[in-house]
Amino acid sequence: MIIAIDGTLASGKGTIARRLSDLFALPHMDTGRLYRATGVAAMNAGADLTDAKAIAEVASKLEPSLFTEAELRTAEAGLAASKVAVLPEVRAALLELQRNFAHQPTGAILDGRDIGTVVCPEADVKLWVDANVEVRAKRRHAELKAAGDTITLDELTAQLRERDERDRNRKDAPMVAAADAILIDTTDLTIDAAVDKARAAVEMAN
Ligand code: C5P
């Protein structure tokens, strides 16, 4: 069973993916981590984030396990991720890794922006998770603040809009719900209620 979970930033898709991974004992890949690690590695190397060839080289040699969660979770890493994610060469360099993970014998859960549309269009269950932008900004702001980040809510809201727009409008693998995705709007849902909906969708497909 392959479960594809896509959606906007801070919509709750990562939490839903992790909870489903526990509930159904399926391995989980947070594909945003690959783009974040690529962005951070490129910044550390002093590379120009618009240089497709150089960044694709970074992506193809990526060792995501070498990065700590703390360095990948910053707002700066998220912004760098969304910049390198525009480059088709970078997306191509990360594709096989994601597909191989999806097609392991146990099945898998992947969350990201293009899992149901590009990485695993054959997924057994596709979820699209979204919430209103103010709610998402508040959630992410609380997380970043707890981690010691000093970004303000206004700055973060602007960044979130910028990233959503870049993700939605890029030519290659834009962020969009697959036609056959089940929509979960988490604006007014607790995390438990959102997970219940996701679980019901998976059980229906089983
Ligand atoms: O989900 P997360 O915030 O960690 O993703 C960081 C960025 O990586 C996204 O804003 C997006 O630009 C990119 N990304 C992507 N495709 C994916 C996962 C993430 O383009 N499957």
What is the radius of gyration computed over CA atoms, rounded to a whole number of angstroms? Answer: 16 Å
Report the major sheet: 5 strands, parallel
Give the DSSP E fraction (strand runs of 2 or more residues).
5-15%
CATH architecture: 3-Layer(aba) Sandwich
Account of the protein in words:
This protein starts with a strand and ends with a helix. It is 55% helix and 12% strand. The longest helix has 17 residues, at 153-169. It has a five-stranded parallel beta sheet, sandwiched between helices. The chain has 206 residues and is an alpha/beta fold. It has ten helices and five strands. It is globular. It has one domain: Rossmann fold. Bound molecules: cytidine-5'-monophosphate. Cytidine-5'-monophosphate is lined by residues 9, 31-32, 35-36, 78, 81-82, 85, 112-115, 163, 167. Cytidine-5'-monophosphate binds at residues 9, 31-32, 35-36, 78, 81-82, 85, 112-115, 163, 167.
Key features?
206 residues, alpha/beta, Rossmann fold, 10 helices, 5 strands, 55% helix, globular, binds cytidine-5'-monophosphate, ATP binding, Cytidylate kinase
Compact summary:
The protein is an alpha/beta fold. Helix content is 55%, strand content 12%.
List the helices and strands and how they pair.
Blueprint: E1 2-7, H1 13-24, E2 28-30, H2 32-44, H3 52-60, H4 69-72, H5 75-84, H6 88-102, E3 108-112, H7 115-119, E4 125-130, H8 133-146, H9 153-169, E5 182-185, H10 191-205
Parallel strand pairs: 1-3, 1-4, 2-3, 4-5
Helix pairs in contact: 1-10, 2-3, 2-5, 3-6, 5-9, 8-9
